[in-house]
Amino acid sequence: MVPTEEIELLRYKSKILVVDDNELICRFISTLLSKAGFCDVKFVLSGKAALEIIEDEKPACVISDIEMPEMNGFQLLEILKSNILTKDIPVLVITAHDDRENRNEVLGHGASTVLSKPIDSPLLVNLVTSILDRKNLLDLLSLYHERLSLELELATDMQVDLLPDKEQTNKIKEKYNVNIEGHFQPSSELGGDLWYVKELNATQFMFFLADFSGHGISASINTFRLNTLLNKINVPSKKPSDFLSVINNELCQIMPIGQFCTLLCIKVDVKENTITYSGAAAPPFICITEDTMTLCDVSGIPLGIQENNTYNEHSLNFSKNSALFAYSDALYETKFRNNHPLGIEGVYQLVEEIKEKKSANLMQNILDHFYLEVDRSRLTDDLTTVLITR
Amino acid sequence: MEYQLNTSGTSVEISLTGELSFSDLKTFRELLTDTINASSAGAKQWILNLVNLKYIDSAGLGLVLRMKATAEKEQKELTIRAAESGDVAQALEITKFHELINLEKN
Questions:
Q1: What is the pLDDT of residues A97-117, one digit of tens each?
Q2: pLDDT of A1
Q3: Structural domains counted in chain A
Q4: Angstrom distance (rounded) from CA A243 to CA A265
């Protein structure tokens, strides 16, 4: 939060403009505020002069009289409040007509507060103090918000850049004749999911789907760590279970206690027509061949918790016209409108139903079904789905 | 998430209800402090009772791991008590938590 000292410092430096056709009153208010510690108080004798100064100097607070020749206080308020550049400047109105109707009219014109004549000096100082503090606090917060939004926007772009793009999936398509299609929707600007493809040789590539515990900024920082690790990692055996062990030991060195990563690792071999897979607490993925559908168990101790874990490994047939559907836990854990999540069995059934309809685009159908039930902008966890087809 | 502590003899039982997730970080810190204080009389064992917990997400599992680290530091033996089935049981199964922490099925 914004520290109190900063608000106090800003309070006394803030520009204050007094507007009154009576110079004596202007001098009285200016002196009063100067004595109270406000260092930057100016006054002008007409609404017109006020507008000129406001345009140049953008005061933090305007103190204005109502009854003035040429342009009265109401007119001044109307002009200030209708201009986007000046509408947020708080205006304290001082009026001799302190009846209910007049007070409400002044406030209705957008004044922040009304003070009646004769001026109650301590009250004026208190009102100016609270108006300035609120204005400065809001300014600081919106500045902070703006800066953070901009930084998050840049970071979001960076995170999206981590994921395989069209160029990379086209390369995989050319080299292995395999289609890869991914979808990533973080629950906030940044997320803790990552999917990755690593070419091993002319006939084999490795697919990874990772999900870091938690979500948001801290989880997303971990995806950058993992991405770097996956870029440089070299496992001579090319076995998914060995990849998991090596990545686990590396992550144990860098992950804080209480943070971990679930990882699915699938080796696709287009010569042998097989997949070999290993997992660490990943959601079971679905392997679809022309006549079978298998829910593949990839449970295991998550990565980054305990060193020297070993992981199981399994193989399946993956001939032409087969497909793999992998997803992060948000797909089956996010509650639908009826307050129930899809569940792992639900995901399996959904894939089965869509497959039976023989519709062209399996993943889009799954996502359409999901986003019918869940508001995309209000996900509680990051969603990643990847479909690999031969 | 809400929690309740019961000290009996040499063990402190920490019972959780509701959902354990990302938003419980602060409550969980208090829980750990309370548990340490409750064991100052000489309790050697911590039992984390998740039987009545409805849901746990990955961040929630992370909090359980923090409790494990705290228990090790405080030289206490940590046991998780969980239901046979349900969302929490499924989360513990997928992550093979029984290989990390003593797990009692209830």
A1: 878 888 899 999 999 999 999
A2: 54
A3: 2
A4: 8
Pair of tokens at residue A326: 């992998």
* Residues A66 and A196 placed together within one structural domain of the fold: no
Asked whether residue A60 falls in the same domain as residue A174, the answer is: no
Structure tokens at A305: 């918790």
pLDDT score of A6: 87
Query: Which distant-in-sequence residues (6+ apart) come within 8 Å of A326 by Cβ?
Result: A195, A207, A209, A264, A266, A282, A283, A285, A286, A385, A386, A388
Q: Does A302 touch chain B (CB under 8 A)?
A: yes
Q: Is residue A297 assigned to a domain?
A: yes
Q: Going by C-beta distance under 8 Å and a sequence separation of 6 or more, which residues neighbour residue B32? A: B66, B67, B70
Cβ contacts of B22 on chain A, cutoff 8 Å: 214-216
| Best mutation target, A213, A312, A347, A381, to test chain B (most B CBs within 10 A) | A213
Give the pLDDT score at A377.
87
**B84 min Cα distance to partner chain A (Å):** 17
Closest CA to A73 of A56, A97, A57: A97
Is residue A154 domain-resident?
Answer: no
Length in residues, chain A: 390
The Cα–Cα gap between B20 and B2 comes to 9
A219 and A96 in a common domain: no
Regions of chain A short of the pLDDT cut 50 = none
Q: Which of A97, A119, A147 marks a domain boundary?
A: A147
Does residue A23 fall inside a structural domain? yes
Query: pLDDT, tens digit, for every residue of A188-231?
Result: 888 899 999 999 999 999 999 999 987 788 899 999 999 999 99
CB-based contact, B63 to chain A, within 8 Å:
yes
* ipTM topping 0.85: no
Which domains are assigned to chain B? 2-105 (3.30.750.24)
- Domain, as residue range, for A29: 4-147
For residues A178 and A105, membership in a common domain is answered with: no
| From A215, A301, A333, residue closest to B96, measured CB to CB | A301
Coil, strand or helix at B41: coil
Tell me which of B40 and A287 has the higher pLDDT: A287
B62/A260 touch (CB, cutoff 8 Å), yes or no: yes
What is the structure's pLDDT at A4?
Answer: 82
Cβ contact (<8 Å) for B94 and A283?
Answer: yes
Give me the CATH number covering residue A74. Answer: 3.40.50.2300
**Contacts with A214 from chain B: Cβ below 8 Å:** 22, 58-59, 62
How many beta-carbon pairs under 8 angstroms link A with B?
Answer: 55
CA atoms of A239 and A243, how far apart (whole Å): 6
Kindly state whether A269 is in contact with chain B, defined as any CB-CB distance less than 8 angstroms: no
**What is the model's pLDDT at position A108?**
94
Q: Looking at the structure, do residues A169 and A113 belong to the same domain, yes or no? A: no
Q: Which helix (H) or strand (E) holds A31?
A: helix A23-35
pLDDT(B72) > 80:
yes
Same domain (yes/no): A140, A186 = no
Same domain assignment for residues A45 and A113: yes
Residue A344 is predicted with a pLDDT of 93
Examine the domain organization and report whether A140 and A198 are in the same domain. no
Range B50-78 average pLDDT: 93
